[in-house]
Write a structure and sequence with these properties.
349 residues; alpha+beta; 3 domains; 4-stranded mixed beta sheet; 3-stranded antiparallel beta sheet; 8 helices; 13 strands; globular
């Protein structure tokens, strides 16, 4: 994620900021320009956009709920931004607390779309493609205790996110119960989007599908049976040789989704490190992110920058008495799968 600066006063700004803490100006993110802009109110009720004064913008309609700071061209008939037009169902906002949980969901979703836009990935919504467009349901648990629980997952372009995952306590309990070293809202969004893009970019291309099966395995294996076996037996003892997580061992679809999510973790975190001009100095070399991670030449360039960063942040955490910030091991098999994702994404540029 990039850092931004107020065009009026120069104050450092972050992606989710809605107001400059120094000069008080309202802020709006312009996805078509990839920048956060300071705004001045106009007499007609519109906004003067300091990042591009010659162009007129309006806020996404979800700004009225305090869950979106994105803008779109004022002459568009569409009322939702590039990210929010993919919403299919939102929580019942008459229920106390749902607005806060939904806001956290939207923060994660907008970070996902920041990356998807930079990677030039296809983003058809349900209006563009009623059968297969990307859409999100944010669902709360049903009020009756005997009803079925909401399950986070993907089905033919529709991603369901259990609203309870935005509750830090509930999510931490699930992380402990499932033995997961890493479980975040942003991770959920990235993982589930991986299932969507597998359908769009892999399943639809015979040659790509052939390459996928050679690396990840045959996805035609019974998915329900694979999940049942995983929950009964767990992951194989040597899973770290070829998989990023124990859950990735369940089925080739999950292996791809975990790899897809991890690729997004890497490029976005490296962009943040680059924005802070972070460098890591060891006895052997100095690592500096002097390239755009979203347009890296190859996976090796990303890995050579990524590994020193992870060693550093984990060491900082240990010094604070905390567990690993980055609880993963990147073995050659996992790096090869990340390389497949990199090639798949950049083939579209």
């Amino acid at each position: 994620m990039k850092l931004f600066a107020c065009q009026a006063c120069g104050q450092l700004l972050y992606f989710e900021n809605v107001r400059c803490e120094h000069c008080g100006r309202t802020l709006g993110y312009l996805p078509d320009l990839g920048t956060l802009s300071s705004l001045d109110p106009k007499p007609d009720g519109g906004w003067s956009v300091l990042a591009t004064p010659q162009r007129a913008y309006k806020f996404c309609d979800n700004a009225r709920y305090g869950v979106c700071n994105w803008m779109l061209p004022a002459n568009q008939s569409e009322i939702y931004c590039t990210a929010c037009r993919h919403n299919h169902l939102i929580p019942d906002l008459s229920v106390p607390g749902n607005d806060i949980l939904w806001s956290r969901m939207e923060d994660a979703k907008h970070r996902l779309f920041y990356s998807l836009i930079l990677l030039h990935l296809p983003l058809a919504n349900r209006i563009d493609d009623p059968e297969h467009g990307l859409a999100f349901d944010f669902l709360a648990e049903p009020p009756t205790p005997h009803a079925a629980h909401v399950m986070t997952g993907h089905n033919n372009g529709l991603i369901t996110l259990a609203l309870k995952e935005a509750d830090d306590v509930v999510r931490e309990q699930a992380r402990e119960a499932l033995g997961e070293p890493y479980r975040t809202l942003l991770g959920h969004f990235r993982h589930e989007s991986g299932h969507y893009f597998w359908d769009r970019l892999v399943a639809s291309d015979p040659e790509t599908l052939k390459s996928f099966r050679a690396l990840f395995g045959d996805e035609r294996a019974d998915y329900a049976a694979a999940l049942k076996a995983y929950y009964a037996q767990g992951a194989p003892p040597d899973w770290r040789k070829n998989f990023l997580s124990v859950y990735a061992t369940t089925h080739p679809w999950e292996d791809f989704a975990e790899s897809w999510a991890h690729y997004l973790h890497i490029v976005d975190t490296l962009e943040t490190a680059r924005a802070f001009d972070l460098s890591v100095v060891t006895r052997r070399k100095t690592t500096r992110i002097d390239f755009d991670p979203y347009n890296a030449a190859d996976m090796q360039q990303l890995i050579e920058a990524w590994l020193p960063i992870t060693f550093t942040v984990n060491s900082l955490n240990w010094s604070m008495g905390q567990s690993d910030l980055y609880p993963f091991i990147l073995a050659p098999g996992s790096i090869a799968k990340l390389g497949f994702i990199h090639a798949l994404v950049h083939r579209r540029h």
